[in-house]
Amino acid sequence: MVSNSIASAPILIRALGRDGMEMVKKRWVAIAILGFACALLVPALRDGTGTPGSSALVSEANASSPAVTVGRQAPDFTLRDPEGKPVRLKDLKGKVVVLSFWATWCPPCRMEMPHLEALQKKYAGKPVKVVGVNTDKQGKALRNWMKARKLTFTVVADADHKVSRQYQVEGFPTLYVVDKKGIVREHVVGFDPEMETNLGRLIDNLLKK
Question: What is the value of pTM for the model shown?
Answer without folding.
Answer: 0.74
